Structures are given as C-alpha cells and as structure tokens.
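Hi R.,

Here's the chain you asked about this morning:
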Amino acid sequence: MDRNRKTRLLTQLKSAIADLPPRLKVIAKYIIDNPGDFGMDPIRVSAEKIGVSPNSLVRMAQKMGFDGFEPFRDPFRHALVTEREDLMGVDWIAQLDNGDNLARTQAQLARNEVNIVSRSLRMMTQERIGDALRCLTEARNCYVTATRSSYAMAYYFHYVGRMALPGLQLIPRHMGSAVDELFGADERDCLVAITFAPYSAETIQSLRYARRKGTRLIVISDSEVIAPQIDPDVVFPVTTQSHHYFGCYGGAMAVLECLLGHLVALGGEEAQRRIADYEATREDTGAYYKAARIPRIRD
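And here is the predicted structure, written out as tokens:
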C-alpha cells in the first residue's frame, strides 16, 4: 500500500538524515515535517519552499534509490488519497453512537453523508457516463448553469473542467440571464444544469429554451423528472436527503468530480499539459500564497 511505502520512506529519511550532506539534510527535514505538502507540490514549488534548487531534490531522490523526483514523490502523493477506506468499514461511526449527544449527532450526520454519496455513485451507471461524455466532448460549446446554492457546484465544475474541456462555459456571466447566453446555441451544443428541489425557475427556463433549440441536455438533480417539456439526454439522479433544513450535496459533488476525472482521462496528454500550463501561469502570476523562503544552506 502507498501509505506503507510512505511510512517506510519517512523511516529511512529519519535514519539517514544525520549522514546526509547539509543541503540534502535540509530537504530530508522538510519532507519529514511536511509529507503532505511534499506529496502535492510540483518540484519547483517544493524547491522554493525548502530554499534549494530543483536539482537538489533530484539528487535527494537518487540518494534514496529512485530514478528521479516523481517516483520519489509518488508514495507521498498517493498516500493522501485513501484508496482502501471502504475496507476499513464504518466501525468509527458505531463508536460515535456510544458517545455523548454531540458524538451521536455526528454519527447520524456522518452515516447520512456516507449513504448519500454511496447511493449517488451507485446510480451513476456506465451507460449514463458514456452518454454524458459523448455529449460533452462532441459539443461545439458546452454550457454549465445553476443558481443559488447549486451555483457553487457549477462554478467548481467549470473551474476545473475547462482545463480538460476548453469549450466549457459557465452561464450566466456576471448579472445576465442564462437564456441570454444560450441565444446562439443549437444542436451542436450541450447544456449541463444542476438543480435540486425546490427547483430554480431560471434553470427550468434555461433547460426548456435550450431543448427548443435542439441543444443536448445533461441534468444533475434529485429527480429524473424535474419539470415538463425538458426531456434531458442524460440525467444523473443524486440523493440529497438530510437531517437538517437544507439538502446534502455530498453525493452531487461526488458525481461531478467523477465526471471531471473522466474528462481529464479522456483528454490524455493534451489535458495534462493544459492543466500544467494553468498551474504554471498561476504560480508565475502570484495567484498562490507562498511563505517566506527558508535561508539557503551552503554545501
């Protein structure tokens, strides 16, 4: 397991750190203290945080028996994703049931979240995924729309998805109407709409308008039948049942993130290159906060 590989590497670093050259010693200490950041950051970012050159990180990787930086970083990166959580069961929820009122409430809420994510992903069938991907990748333009609380999900889907699918557009822009943005849409285009009960009148209007123009429709909703005169090409039904006054959107987010994963996989090397270019641009323009540099250590 990747988590075990990461643990073994950290143990090796701790054992070897005393005998390393000064620069590699600084790198080893940073990795031991910040394994999560090291697993996530590109080589340039890690080098800047540590205060060394990228070549020093390559030397560190080779010192630890790896061919290059990426194989060295991989165990830390993969350990951030718990790939075997399902095999660990939900005993931790049962333990909460035996606690005080706060613990029992957390158990109830956590169990509900696990259930809605599982059910939503189970209803995300291979046939629905295939149909949706064809709509998305074959479209001249693909629009994404939502309102109110659903808008946050549409924004995220667009923010990430446009790196794999450049024709993705979030509507409405600014203070306009989604219908205004769909004026030139036709059968060559696609509209992704996210809406949950009580359904947004504006989203329903956009879906009907797009359908009249022959635009293909993908809907993420808590029902396969949200209103007459829509008839989507693909519906991803999700569960939003909650124990409080507002819907739980964990299941919807899981479905959207799986769709994003499929888009990136389909995009292949071109999508990976585009994502890397986006990240490089953000770094170069100072989009991300960077802590003060650690003073460089002379060899």
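One quick note: The longest helix spans residues 250-284.

Cheers,
M.
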